[in-house]
Structure prediction request, 164 residues.
Amino acid sequence: MATLQASMIEYKNQLQNGNIVRAYRGLMAYMQDLRTHFAKTYPDYFVSGSLYTGFMDMTYFAVSPPALKQRSLKAAIVFVHEAFRFEVWLSGANRQIQAEWWKVIKTSGWDTYSVVPVITGSDAIVEHVLVAEPNFDDLPALTDRIERGTLRFIHEVEAYLTSR
Prediction:
């Protein structure tokens, strides 16, 4: 494993190359546009006002339709940097609520989506891959895939919550 100094030198070299800076700016602009798309298209949903940009591990924003919001739940549309894919996560408004819902879902036998194996330290209750290999050359098609997958996820989570 490289030392921090060696890693910083490589980081500096990559930044000077310019590709990482362009890619990161493009990704952040796309995520902001995607957030705005959800906010404008679904005015009855609560859409977080800003992006969580993370530590180059994940970037996300939250979408909460009324049925999730009233249960202190949200769907997070997440770009996972290392896996280089888009996912949607069911999350709680805080760690306590998240742990409570994780226990409910985990013990219910609902297996439509992957329940995280351990809630401690997790940002999600349930995870689902939306786009495993995103094509950033066709942003409208990418947005469409993310939107359709997110809506399907939300509707199936809502159906599960309603049936309880």
